[in-house]
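Pilot study result, target chain (194 residues):
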Amino acid sequence: MSNLIPTILQNYTTGEVLMLAYSNSEAIELTNETGLVHFFSRSRDKIWLKGETSGNTMRLIESRQDCDQDTLLYKVIPSGPACHTGTSSCFNPDEEQINLKTFDYLTRFENYLSEIIDKRQEGSYTVKLYKGSKGKLIRKIIEEAGEVAESFIENDGRLSKEIADLFYHLSVLMLRDGLSFDRVYQELDNRRKA
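Predicted structure:
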């Protein structure tokens, strides 16, 4: 058992840490051959396919070693919950963990817009909205909200695009008003806890 390597599973899509288990060379080889995560069970003293009983397999997307090459990180797409208790992760059975990938994306998007505004990129639609009249920005937000509603009613397959347009324009308004995504997230989190 001294050749066991701690193996961390992370959801490739969300970034959520799912579980920790142990691999040996045979488990690693099977994982690479099949594309499905295998481990070595210390309690049963044998190789096992993650999800062989529950059906909640983990499809390997990417594999990394740490700097000392004594720990593995598997980035996976789960077919179901990672934890035997039925939760998505063994580290948050109460499901209070925030989706860090989503929050990280929002922060990166906010930084991206801020950079465009700070550099005052010539001809940029974002800069024009940011520097233009409040009335024009508000009218655009109302227009985009109307398009979201229309798309929802008509079920035309454009809803995600229309929501993205509305989100973009609301983001410019937030930056113009000095309101960060973090503050909005905190407000949403407060409502969730209430």
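One observation from the pilot: The mean pLDDT is 87. A full batch analysis is planned for the follow-on phase.
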